[in-house]
Amino acid sequence: MSKTLILAEKPSVGRDLARHLGAKNRREGYIEGDKYIITWALGHLVGLADPEKYDEKYSKWRLNTLPMMPEKMKTVILPGARKQFSTVKKQLLRKDVDKIIIATDAGREGELVARWIIDKSGAKKPMYRLWISAQTDKAIRDGMAQLQPAAKYDNLAASALARAEADWLVGLNITRALTTRFNAQLSAGRVQTPTLAMIVAREEAIARFKATPYYVITANGAGVRWEWQGKDGNRIYSEDAAQALINKLRDQTGRITGIKEKKRKVNPPLLYDLTTLQRDANARQGMSPKDTLHHLQRLYEVHKLVTYPRTDSRHLTEDLAASMPDRLAALRSGPYGAVVKEIISQKAQLPAGFYNNAKVSNHHALLPTEVRPGSADLNQHEHFIYKLIVERFLGAFLGPAEVQDTSFEAEVAGERFTAKGEVTLNAGWRAVAQAEAATVESDEDEAPVQALPRLAKGQALKGLTSSKNERRTRPPHRFSEGTLLAAMENPQAFVDDAHANKILKESGGIGTPATRADIIEKLFKNFYITKEGKSILPTAKGRQLIDLVPADLRSPLLTAQWEERLAAIAKGQEDPAAFDADMRHFASDLVQAVKKSEAIFKHDNETATPCPDCGKLLLAVEGKRGKLRVCPDPACGYRETVSQKTGARCPQCRKPLVIIQKDGHKLYACNSCGFRDRFDRFNDRHKGGQKSTRRDVAAYQKKQAKEKDIGANAFADAWAAALKNKDQ
């Protein structure tokens, strides 16, 4: 009997498909049933070949061998993937397999995963596509009933291949050119370089900024905080003028000259796409974009609680309206039961504006699935991400929030004062959904919104107390990971060209929702950026790189133009060959620009410690998770950890602890007060349940004073709590 081979992207997805299709015979690397054989990739099993596979001369990095322009790009089985590829290939070529179903992730990259594997295997059989946005039984059942010929997605596959080959041609050529020309580990790319350029530009703007002092005059009276308003706003740039105004207002009685009340509606925010979810998670809990995607992927693949994660849409297709009752029913017995019952009893619907087929590309906005969350064993991060998605979803059913804005005007000694207040009349979506995270920061001063008492026009304001508040204009804020995501999505502020801004807006900015988190992590890994608290700063290496990279590669417009053309290829509107030809010319031009450069790269972080492998002096670098020493020779690649950041706090000064190595032992260290001790010793103490005393602290302090190296307690928070309880 003939069988159908289904190729999934990951083992977990393969197991879900097998369970749904009744395939129960587990084999190594696949599962077989009466009608179906389900196997899987492990992400990419096949990729583009390294340069040395084309010519032996590329095995060594030399400037005179560039640019590298293979006539036809080759694919190879990736390191570590040979065993699973062999398994998949055998199943694809089985004589009893007469049909192939591609069930990798429904997107550009997922399409490439499957096409490369099938092409490398040599399989020539009819192919179909399973395109689903959730891993639930219902989604799989509906998807299997609506299989499409794989040829329908040939243009998407062509777009994916064009992107991969262009990144190889541009990325590898410019990286080798920079590294060999300047004798340093340098890399560049059409997404990471403009992202780094934005960070460097922001830091330069901060450095150029000169703070200007100014004064804001406020007065308190009748239970209201009033703010002075001049002809040009609320700022006074002369201290003498500010003090003169204070003197003028002293012992004066004011009068309310105007009251305005206006009701308005605040519509619920659109549903999440990946980027807005990552921004909110970073703003509210400091989660990195990469961590957010990881936990979201588990909610999708493992727990089946949310729809496809890597979406760039905040809208839904109209056909999803019929699924809303089932999604609501899944939430009825949980903590949102009362809200769901209210929605059902009122027969509330999602606003019509949430449905827009034209604004959904490959996948709709993030939604909770029809699976009940009660039995899911979620960790705290998964619970937080799921909570955000559910609250945004339910809040939309509750409709707009209704508020009443009130503004008062008063006159005091001929001067104008104002106060603003807001009263919620109907919470609407705000009753359940958290407000949109603030990702745009401003240095503007606005009068605070306050709860205002009932006052009458003409009412006297007696006993006013006024004060002048000195402030300073603020420089632009440094990026956090959340605001950097926002800038990557909307980089128009960094391009001074109307047509270019139009392209950036239509293309969705720099990179894609699926790749932005990895790009930020790559910048950290390459030591181009570092963090201070939540703020991202460029390193000296990162700043120098932007000066060395050709201007065309620094512009956000480049990647936007690429994405625009790749989208056209996916729609069958552009020839991939024309795109490839342009990329080859572009890569060649970049290499020539680097060759002609007369710039010099200087390591300003060289240590006196030689590399144990090649003897070159190691460089001291600040990574995202701690301090390292790395070899400057890219051919060597040696690196060692000096100290690693932790979430623990020093029991003496409450400053963050780091992990260091001393004489082969792992220590926790406090760089502020010098407290330290061996990690394993405190680990044993903690597990044994022993309580620490003040005598313990005194002993450690005495011991640490005798030694030069710093250290700290691995269980600082637990220890500090024990001491606090003892004192009480």
From TrEMBL:
Protein name: DNA topoisomerase
Acetylation recorded as keyword: no
Domain Toprim as annotated: residue spans: 3-133
Known EC number: 5.6.2.1
InterPro entries registered for this protein in UniProt: Topo_IA (IPR000380), Topo_IA_2 (IPR003601), Topo_IA_AS (IPR023406), Topo_IA_cen (IPR013497), Topo_IA_cen_sub1 (IPR013824), Topo_IA_cen_sub2 (IPR013825), Topo_IA_cen_sub3 (IPR013826), Topo_IA_core_domain (IPR023405)
Protein source organism: Peptococcus simiae
Catalysis performed (reactions): ATP-independent breakage of single-stranded DNA, followed by passage and rejoining
A GO MF term: DNA topoisomerase type I (single strand cut, ATP-independent) activity
